[in-house]
Amino acid sequence: MKPNSESFTPEEERQLIRKLDFWIVPLMMVTYTLQSYDKGVMSAATQFNFNADLKLTTIVGHEPDGTPITNNQKYANASMMFYIGYLVGTYPMMFLSQRYSISRVVSTATFLWGAVLMSTAGCFNYTGIMLNRLFLGFLESAVAPSFTVLVTFWWTREEQALRTGFWYSCVGVATTISPLINYGLGQIHGSLPSWKPIFLILGGVTILWSIVLFLFLPDNPMTSKHLTDAERHIAIRRLERNNAGTVSHEFNKAQFFEAFRDYKLYSCSFIVLLTGVPSGALGTFGTLVINSFGYSHFDSLALTCPIGAITATSILLSGYITRKWRNMRYLLIILCGLISIAGTLICWFGPRSNRGLLFAGVFLIAVQVASGGLAVSLAASNIAGHTKKSTVSASTFVGYCVGNVIGPVIFGASPGPVYHAGFVGSFVCLCGVVVIASITLIMLRMENKKRDKRTGAPIGLHSIDEDLTDKQNEEFRYVM
């Protein structure tokens, strides 16, 4: 039996937490901002003749008032290929990040995707951009699953939702800061078309950032050189509190298969998948949808800024609430889903003449990204065992890929400027989020009650050296 008493003071623990928050969290946030920015920059490039130069959009007719009716299927396919690449790369990257150093895998992948992003400027046809987006997605798949697991090495389960929220919210940060930056980059006039400098400059910035990750991103408390012996002891003791098993570089086949027999894998994956449909669609078609409301090209770019802000704010606020009050995560998933359902109904039934109301609907749809962020944190917090945790995390982002593939396909198959099928599909998916979250909440609450009845309150019987899964460890209690 391991001792229950702590050999450090609460103040020493708070000092370590502050150090981790100001050291590791900013590294994850900047990396995920770049990943989200680089992934979505193609949407901004559409405002600078990107689609026309690569022949990705065709005009198939006109509205009575002369507004062109466009077919954006090739553009949607190019967007989709990013997520196909992400899907193909997720499990190999998961294996590499467990087998080798997370910092080395993430920094190397970041360097390579920066190079691929720069190469986008050399694309001149549909085939070229499809291959380019495939490789970009494959390499970017290293980041999110690795960060989901990395958070569990440094913060307790009560702290994880907020820290995951910090880096996951950067999808909104990227959406907030990128439009005006992209507009400025698009004003570079020279021998190259206006959209090419955007990819060249952003790719170069990403390559430089990969060097920072290589030097400063840690792996786990046992191997980090940036901790004192006292800090390492506190970090390891905190890791033991999680009942989440050890940090292992050995692939555990039994844990891998147990993950796929666990309903929590499918619950988290489907929630992220279903929230990925509207968020993926808006990430790809956001500027086109807002443009279809009657706004100019510049206004369409500028108006994506507040959408990013509400995305980031909703994720961070949800993370703060879960830190302040326990067992609120599934309730918040349901609440954010309901808010966004209202947004889809506004865009579905709202009069096309009231563009302010339509934009407000898009604004509300953005809130559902917080549901996906909470599901990502639950995929780590409610799973124990290194291989099992890595597998569930990777599977969650497989759901993310599938959702982000479906979203642009639905919007691309629905003619602009109405995009009727896109908003209907988003409504159906968000209803599914509410149902799945409600059922999972009930099942986890019943499981915790069963464990309390069998074993009583947890008393700390297992050490960090035991790589037990949440199924094997009767002391493990699920967060809700």
Helices, by number, come to 19
Structural class: mainly alpha
- The appropriate CATH architecture is Up-down Bundle
Bin the strand percentage. Answer: under 5%
* Average of pLDDT: 85
End-to-end distance, in Å? 28 Å
Radius of gyration: 23 Å
Quick one: CATH class? Mainly Alpha
Topology as a string of helices (H) and strands (E): HHEEHHHHHHHHHHHHHHHHH
How many structurally independent domains? 1
Main sheet: which strands, in order across?
A: 1-2
Q: Per the principal axes of the C-alpha atoms, what is the gross shape? A: globular
Task: Write down how many β-strands occur, each being a DSSP E stretch of 2 or more residues.
Answer: 2
CATH fold field value:
Growth Hormone, Chain: A
Please give the share of residues in helix. Answer: over 70%
The CATH H-level superfamily is MFS general substrate transporter like domains
SSE arrangement:
Elements: H1 10-45, H2 50-54, E1 58-62, E2 68-71, H3 73-99, H4 102-119, H5 126-140, H6 143-154, H7 157-168, H8 170-186, H9 196-216, H10 229-241, H11 253-260, H12 263-292, H13 297-302, H14 304-324, H15 329-349, H16 355-365, H17 369-381, H18 386-413, H19 420-455
Antiparallel strand pairs: 1-2
